Amino acid sequence: MPDIDEAPVGGIAAIRKLLWVMAAVAALLGGLLYFGLEGSGADNQAPVAAKLPFGGPFELIAADGSVLTEKNLAGKPYAIFFGFTRCPDVCPTTLSRMALWRKQLGKDGEKFNIVFVSVDPARDKPSDIGSYVELFDTPIIAATGTDAQLAQIRKGFGVYVKKVPLDPVNLGGDYTIDHTAGIFLMDAQGHLSSIIDHHESERTALEKLRMLVG
Amino acid sequence: MKFKRAILLAGLVVPVLAAPVLAHNFAIGKIAIGHPWTRETAATQSVGGGFLTIRNGGKAADRLLSASSPFAAEVQIHTMSMDGGVMKMRQLKDGIAIPAGQTVELKPGGLHIMFIGLKQPYKKGSQIPATLRFLKAGTVKVSFAVQPVGSAAPMEAGHAGH
């Protein structure tokens, strides 16, 4: 009985070979996927993720009109969130969750700043975002910037922002903004510590904040 | 001792008694609307989200077609979703289907009413009048209770004072 691979029936041998190749490719892909996921999972698993360049440098306009850079924020950890005041749901929900976490953390809650960046400078003037964040009953540093300044910080944090017309027919009319809804936790040196996803449980979020200030 | 018990009893009884009085519900035809609410807004904020439940007790499907309010330049019906960590909001031009015998929830993180061009800031504790128009049931006047900005769910009677 000849080895099956050398069987004279060419068709079957070819299929066998093909199957082996497919299995090898699948194993390779599986391995890649596994390690790929491991790599991206590191953000969630290890709070002190990496000292890779992330976030800064950036320059923004604070609610009072002054300049806000990563240097002004350095020295104290901060939780930064991107949004816009016309966002009816995710933004108020996230900002009020952050206010609540801060209260729940007691003394630890005072050890980090909360920063809200409006990515809608066409409609949110610095003073608008100032009065907006006052609703949340906890100190929040509010800022926005010119299109160029915002492009820079978005690139630094890998934040996705896309204007979408509310009326597909009237493209020049009112619009909403698709935007990244995670909270970036930055340590006192301005390095990424962790990210709180929109769907994160309260317990995990609090734990990540404790890690941030601990 | 008696006094203490009276307080205890009051604490237990009041929320139960108050619920039917303070919980605000509306109805038109086979459509029942449960506790419409919205969030307080900042002076410069021009939009607000509205939430409610709609129950169709009938045997035929209905549809929430549109909404309007004297307190907003325009009222739209929206859906919101999270897609790979990105928040996306879209207008539902055709409204929301309310299948027969089912309840559709408009709540944070999903379907909502969007008040656009607020005529004045929505103050905590006030009511925002609005009209909802259904395909079959017709129009119904409702009011949205303005809750604190941190609200993630309607505050029914008994919770309101906390």
Please describe what this structure looks like.
The complex is a heterodimer of chains A (214) and B (162). Chain A has 6 helices and 9 strands, in the order αββαβαβαβαββββα. Chain A is of the alpha+beta class and 214 residues long. In chain A, the strands form 2 sheets. Chain A has a 7-stranded mixed sheet. A two-stranded antiparallel sheet of chain A has the order 6-7. The longest helix of chain A is centred in the first third of the chain and has 36 residues, at 10-45. Chain A starts with 9 loop residues before the first helix and ends with a helix. Chain B has one domain (24-147): Immunoglobulin-like. In chain B, strands 1, 2, 3, 4, 5, 6, 7, 8, 9, 10 and 11 form an 11-stranded mixed sheet that branches. Chain B has one helix at residues 2-22; strands at residues 25-28, 31-39, 47-56, 62-68, 72-83, 86-91, 96-98, 103-106, 112-118, 127-134, 138-147. The interface between A and B is medium-sized, with 37 and 32 residues. Strand 7 (175-180) of chain A pairs antiparallel with strand 6 of chain B, so a sheet runs across the interface.
The gist of it:
The complex is a heterodimer of chains A (214) and B (162). Chain A is of the alpha+beta class.
CATH topology of chain B: Immunoglobulin-like
Please state the oligomeric state of the protein chains shown.
heterodimer
Give the count of helical stretches of chain A. 6
Strand order, biggest sheet of chain A?
A: 2-1-5-4-3-8-9
**Number of helical regions of chain B:** 1
Which second-level CATH architecture of the largest domain in chain A applies? Answer: 3-Layer(aba) Sandwich
Features:
heterodimer, A: 214 residues, alpha+beta, Glutaredoxin, 2 domains, seven-stranded mixed β-sheet, two-stranded antiparallel sheet, 6 helices, 9 strands, disordered N terminus, B: 162 residues, mainly beta, Immunoglobulin-like, eleven-stranded mixed β-sheet, 1 helix, globular, disordered C terminus
